[in-house]
Amino acid sequence: MPLLELRNLYKAFGGLQAISNVSLTVNEGEIVSIIGPNGAGKSTLFNLITGVYQPDRGDIIFEGERINGLTPDKVTRKGIARTFQNLRLFTHLTVLENVLIPQHHRLKSGWLAAVLRTPAYLKEEEEMRKVALEKLSFFGPRLMSFRLHQPVYVLSYANRRRTEMARAMATGAKLLLLDEPSAGMNPKETKEITQIIRRFRDEGGYTIVLVEHKMNLVGEISDRVVVLDYGEKIAEGDYKDVVNDPKVIEAYLGRREE
């Protein structure tokens, strides 16, 4: 059984068909990349999966359960977390605090226990800290050491992206949706994040779906590549086969004049 299955999804905004009859399966332990020209519907697809938008038609199945209609917080509790194309962090909080916040939905202690700092709450708080440090350790000294207690607004853009990925991991997710994870990174940083995403799967046990424009990253880590154009799936398969597909070439470069 696939971890995630999309069945004939449709989504329109007014007269604009943003997603049209898209079906897709993602198996546990896979890294699947979604590519396509700007405006192809890639981020809209992520918004549908995570409950930001609701599909007009079609089904979203996660671990065998239909999750259409769930709000984003409930989708997160099911085990799906995402990053955003435009960063959404608490910039005046520290790196550590940003990665602690998404764990609060798992707290069993109530607000009174938090105020009184009861032993049960303190134990839960310590467990949250351990989880946060474990997720941040994937990024090594980029986020650990002195940066751990720095406010996010002083970080480089690349380190803010790393912080957002660590925050997504800390939700307890099984499936990570990464929206342009290497955006704003130089070639050295892109190579590093490529290796980290592979480690997410190999060491962290995550299943990953990513939207990405850098083809070297896509080609290096993807088990499968899905191509969208004008909201429709036009190709799916191995990276080399997909990038040589005439429909994909036309989508990126336009139709050649005869």
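Second entry:
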Amino acid sequence: MNDDLILLGHGSGGKLSHQLLDELIIPNLSGVPAAGQNDAALLNIGGVKLAFTTDSYVVDPIFFPGGNIGDLAVNGTVNDLAMMGARPLCLSVGFILEEGFLKSELARIVISMREAADAAGVAIVTGDTKVVPRGKGDRIFINTSGIGAVEHSLSINGAAARVGDKVIVNGCIGDHGIAVLSAREGLEIDSGIKSDSAPLNGLVTELLPLGDALHVLRDPTRGGVATTLKEIALQSGVTVKLSEENLPVNAGVKGVCSILGLDPLYVANEGKLLALVAPERAGEALAIMRRHPLGKDAAVIGEVTESSAGRVVMETMVGGVRGVEMLAGEQLPRIC
């Protein structure tokens, strides 16, 4: 294989993505060390603490059960800010449209973006639109950037996990990836699977009173829960041990994954967060999540067991233990 080629796997959020970032992009652009690579950059401008993030969306198909590329873009950027404990303030939106794209479909998308922004309490304040010739794009790509206010002194980041922390997820995993895959492939699945795309800033606001007990927040999007926890383990230098029997996965997602040979741990989510919380406050964190509409199926799925070079292991339902690594290739391309 030609090592000079960009592959779909380089956009998976997994091992190839990290190699591309670590070997080429980050050294030449910023030099930010691995411990500082989080969902958003933290900035201090004139004594004002801000979080800043950007993301691009190329999901295929652009309309899927539970959402579309527009509200997905808004929610994804809002969530990246929220994972730093920031209060999202405003967004920019950039459209790249292919010649021949329907205005009626663009209208559906921009209306859904407006509705998603209103639901999250953010303003869309600036943007840009470009059109490429027919056949030179794929209908529509969207870039969104966001700014949020950091109104506390907590240190919430991927390098802050500590031995003893409990790992909590706010609900069932894999819904978004399977909803998009089903729509893309025309799977006749009568299971009601919908994308979990949603803004998580309201839920995070309710978790912030946990104070110094709230160590890490991450939304497990591309690469799923497995890849995200591996990133945290590497950043923090710890071992995370998961419990397979405690993983919340709805029956429809389990069924599709079983048929197609997919692992829900690696399937993308767009309305889920992982919280690593000190053990003495974990019960309180779980209760807060379960009281929130986006956390009724929240569960403790693991814990940080020891300092290490960055490991994730799974205690299986038959009593064994297996290693969990980052997504190696591209399990589901064009998922966000």
